[in-house]
Amino acid sequence: MRTWRERRGLSQLGLASVAGISVRHLSFLETGRSHPSREMIARLGTHLELVPREQNELLLAAGFAPAFTALALESEEMASVRAALRRIVTANEPFPAHVVDRGWNIVESNAGFGIFSLDADPFLLEAPVNALRLALHPKGMRPRILNFGEWSHSLLARLGRRVTLTGDPALAALYREVVGYAPHDPGQTDDAPELMVPLRIRYRDDELALFCTIATFGTPLDVTVSELAIETFLPADPETTAILQRLDHQENRARSS
Question: What are the pLDDT digits (tens) for 170-187?
Fold first, then answer.
């Protein structure tokens, strides 16, 4: 309990106040002098903004059974989830979309993935493909990303926040690896203000500008489902839209011939 509280930057007084309990009671819970009920753990977990995996860990530490299942994505019970993910990424075509798990490993993607995998070293494309490693590695997308400084800065900031909030050693190891691929300087931005950082990437003879949106399941009752993120990439300008539609038309014509 104390570990999660400190990761959130809360004092005992701060957490006790929002949870509606006394500082003394919270102190006793953290030191083991008092044993919490499942209801108390759920209340504190809510105010600590714990995700299902972390709530399960808290329950187990207190001697209770987990509240959330943790099924493998490949299991029969997850067939409907896999089908939903496939429909979502396919519906985004001809624009790229993929689904990543807790560690940014790609578990589903659409035909637009070829924009990202072009010229990548084969070892980066061995399953499971890690989206961050592919994007930042010198033998991955890095040579083709035209605004690599600011794009990598954005990706590393997201990963760094996740490491701080979760304390996950696997994510910390991934951060230590990929931070070495990126410059410390986020790079120069255009004088014109932008609402979001686009991914500006070269694909063969074309230059593309894409915005990334991230979606998650709204009411997950399973740890695996709660940790999936659907990353869709949408054109940032009319030129990119036209290029991707042209490429899609060419590929469809080639498949039908």
Answer: 999 999 999 999 876 655
* 222-244 b/e (C-beta count within 10 Å ≥ 16 → b): bbbbbbbebbbbbbbeeebbebb
DSSP string spanning 215-249? E--SS--BHHHHT-EEEEEEESSHHHHHHHHHHHH
Q: Which CATH superfamily is domain 2-61 in?
A: lambda repressor-like DNA-binding domains (1.10.260.40)
Query: Inter-axis angle of helices 12-19 and 23-31, to 10 degrees?
Result: 110
Mean pLDDT of the chain, nearest integer: 92
In three-state form (DSSP H/G/I as H, E/B as E, the rest C), the secondary structure along 59-101 is HHHCCCCCCCECCCCCCHHHHHHHHHHHHHHHHCCCCCEEEEC
Tokens of 117: 């995998």
- pTM of this structure: 0.88
Residue 38 has pLDDT above 70, yes or no: yes
User: Is CATH 3.40.50.2300 the classification given to domain 76-256?
Assistant: no
Q: Which residue has 């991914």 as its token pair?
A: 199
